[in-house]
Amino acid sequence: MGENGGDTTGQTSTGQTSIGQTSTGQTSIGQTSTGRATGASHPKGSLAGHLVWRLSLKWRVAVDRAVAPLGLTHATYVFVSSLHALRRAGARPNQRELAEATGLEALYVSKLARSLEADGLIVRVRDTADTRAFRLDLTERGEQAVREAISVVQALLDELLAPLGGTAGEGAAAFAAQLDVLLAVRAGAAGAEL
Q1: Cα angle vertex 178, ends 53, 89, to 5°?
Q2: Do the domain assignments include residue 84?
Q3: Residue 182: C-alpha distances to residues 52, 168, 176, 193 (Å)
Q4: By its UniProt entry, which InterPro entries does this protein fall under (predicted)?
Q5: 112 occurs within a structural domain
């Protein structure tokens, strides 16, 4: 027990800093054996949210670095790889449909589309059924870039999931199933999907 009556953060037998509970019900997180902070003080139960945020940030930064030599960012990778997958499935999505498929905001997809078109990776063609909409397609250069990027990101994913048994391991499958559960939750007062 700590001075204030709560549990304290202490070191485990493996050298990892443990997580303690304060008397106010907040979770206090210390450092790992590598000296990296694992978080700050969080209201009880919010550690999972903090860890999801940290993992998503770690993933975005890692993808940004991995695809930068190909002239892409995490956001543009999400755009072109999703467009590639939709095209392989026989769809020719417009910007709104791609926004729905990726979870990106429609205005952001529009901005990315203009940028990727200027870079010669995609083409936007007016939809004959709805002249306000643009249908999207990859250029030959875009196809080449996305194939290389998918390979690079797959290797990164293999590395990230290695502690869970690799991408084909049961741990990774269970982790993906839990993430699907969280993504299906409608959050916030307005019930907006995550």
Answers
A1: 95
A2: yes
A3: 10, 21, 10, 10
A4: HTH_MarR-typ, MarR/SlyA-like, WH-like_DNA-bd_sf, WH_DNA-bd_sf
A5: yes
- In this structure, which amino acid lies at residue 155? A
Same domain as 112, residue 93: yes
pLDDT digits (tens, 9 = 90+) for 53-85: 999 999 999 999 999 999 999 999 999 999 999
Specify the amino acid at residue 154. Q
Q: Are 35 and 54 contained in the same domain?
A: no
Domain span at 5:
1-45
Written in H, E and C, the secondary structure of 76-129 is: HHHHHHHHHHHHHCCCCCEHHHHHHHHCCCHHHHHHHHHHHHHCCCEEEEECCC
Single-letter code of the amino acid located at 108: Y
The answer to whether 32 and 16 are in contact (CB under 8 A) is yes
